[in-house]
């Protein structure tokens, strides 16, 4: 397929970007996800952009832009509005190349993000209540200083840099017939789809958006849809897609699907537990799409871009613990015990004999729904599965301890 007339990025642009990036970023592997096969029921290959120095694909577009600057532009530096992966990619490679980088972040950006970007060598400006205000300030500073404004997705140089992922996937796994790519502003899928469709028009390119931020899908379908809210997929939480990127998506992307927050949470958990891979919400969204409807992907050779691994440790911990609860591997029960010496010891012996592991015990003695001669305890227990839970509760009841499962 020849590059369609008038589109902002061509295959030649992406191939030129690949030459600029050679040896300066990680040519990340596209590796078979063998551990996921029993769950997804199809051949799945993961493009591990989590292995980039800053943990995200955003380095590609940032570096391609930096290396496209004239000496005069490089001396003046670059500026961008970002509180995430784009900021870190620019900061890391800008510092490495000796190009000044200024990042404008909303005033309430979490300190850990500010510190991390600053640690890569960028100058940080905190301005505005939200991202739109930060963007406006970045634009003002760019005009004032002469620094080049680098948009996180609606920039042809950025798009071409991201498109190098498509070239690498085809070289590593030529048998692919489907490629799944997350969509926020559209820079990533715009670049990848341009590369793939010009080289292999038979490959189906599918975009994934979170339901609450399905801006690109709405634009392509010609309808208005509200966007906003909180999401685990912060990397694709974009209210308005790019003007350049929507042209490429309209030309080259076969389909856009949406996924829910619970599915993204489950996908993060699944990648961590089964594939030993830490992925941020956006990076796991492709797997969320597969988990949403396994049947539609059966028999296909799928490539999936795991875009980044920069997930907050507390969020990841919470997701994994909630996953244990959801799968019946961490439960809360309430049991009634006679208020006699040794009763609690007997209770714990029954749990241990049933292969349960007690994590926490809370006594309930003072409430009026319990007999004065009895006590209730709430117990958190690690278990193997839902069937194991039923077995454990049955053994407690049979041993004289009325027990019920509490809601997670």
UniProtKB/TrEMBL annotation:
InterPro entries: ACT_ThrD-II-like, Ser/Thr_Dehydratase, Thr_deHydtase_catblc, TrpB-like_PALP, TrpB-like_PALP_sf. It holds the Pfam family PALP. The keyword Lyase applies. Its cofactor is pyridoxal 5'-phosphate. Keywords: Lyase, Pyridoxal phosphate. It catalyses: L-serine = pyruvate + NH4(+). It is an enzyme of class 4 (lyase). Residues 24-308 form the Tryptophan synthase beta chain-like PALP domain. This is Threonine ammonia-lyase. It comes from Lacibacterium aquatile.
């Amino acid at each position: 397929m020849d590059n369609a007339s008038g589109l902002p990025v061509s295959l030649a642009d992406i191939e030129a970007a690949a030459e600029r990036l050679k040896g300066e970023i990680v040519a990340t592997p596209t590796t078979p996800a063998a551990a996921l096969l029993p769950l997804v029921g199809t051949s799945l290959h993961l493009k591990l952009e989590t292995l980039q120095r800053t943990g995200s694909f955003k380095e590609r577009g940032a570096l391609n832009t930096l290396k496209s600057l004239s000496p005069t532009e490089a001396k003046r530096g670059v500026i961008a509005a970002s509180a995430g992966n784009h900021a870190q990619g620019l900061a890391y490679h800008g510092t490495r190349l000796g190009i000044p980088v200024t990042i404008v972040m909303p005033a309430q950006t979490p300190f850990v993000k500010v510190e991390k970007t600053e640690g890569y060598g960028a100058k940080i400006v905190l301005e505005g209540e939200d991202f739109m205000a930060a963007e406006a300030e970045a634009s003002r500073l760019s005009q004032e200083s002469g620094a080049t404004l680098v948009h996180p997705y609606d920039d042809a140089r950025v798009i071409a840099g991201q498109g190098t992922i498509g070239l690498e996937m085809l070289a590593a796994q030529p048998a692919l017939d489907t490629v799944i790519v997350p969509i926020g502003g559209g820079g990533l899928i715009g670049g990848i789809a341009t590369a793939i469709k010009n080289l292999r028009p038979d490959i189906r390119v599918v975009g994934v958006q979170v339901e609450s931020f399905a801006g690109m899908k709405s634009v392509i379908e010609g309808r208005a849809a509200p966007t906003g809210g909180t999401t685990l997929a912060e990397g694709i939480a974009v209210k308005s897609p790019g003007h350049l990127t929507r042209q490429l998506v309209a030309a080259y992307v076969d389909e856009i699907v949406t996924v829910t927050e619970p599915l993204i949470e489950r996908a993060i958990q699944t990648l961590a537990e089964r594939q030993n891979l830490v992925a941020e919400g956006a990076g796991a969204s492709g797997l969320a799409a597969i988990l949403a409807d396994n049947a539609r992907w059966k028999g296909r050779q799928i490539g999936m871009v795991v875009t980044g691994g920069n997930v907050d440790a507390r969020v990841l911990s919470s997701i994994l613990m909630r996953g244990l609860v959801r799968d019946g591997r961490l439960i809360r029960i309430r049991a009634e015990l006679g208020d006699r010496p040794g009763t609690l010891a007997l209770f714990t012996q029954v749990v241990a004999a049933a292969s349960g592991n007690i994590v926490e015990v809370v006594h309930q003695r003072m409430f009026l729904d319990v007999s004065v001669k009895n006590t209730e305890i709430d117990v958190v227990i690690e278990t193997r599965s839902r069937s194991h839970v039923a077995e454990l509760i049955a053994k407690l009841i049979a041993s004289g301890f009325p027990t019920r499962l509490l809601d997670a």
